[in-house]
Fold this sequence. Notes:
It is a single chain. The chain is mainly alpha-helical. It is 82% helix and 0% strand. It has helices at residues 2-6, 9-22, 24-31, 37-58. α2 crosses α3 (24-31). The radius of gyration is 12 Å and the shape is globular.
Amino acid sequence: xxxxxxxxxxxxxxxxxxxxxxxxxxxxxxxxxxxxxxxxxxxxxxxxxxxxxxxxxxxx
Length: 60
């Protein structure tokens, strides 16, 4: 997430590759030739943040 938030696009592409290895939805979106990687990186950021804070929201 640090690469995504800092605007480090080279690091973000590396992070995107790693995410794609364990999140099929990310891999599917990244495989689309019409998708701009910059836009894809920005679009997955909210999901990553919610995954991190979701347990706190639930109070666990």
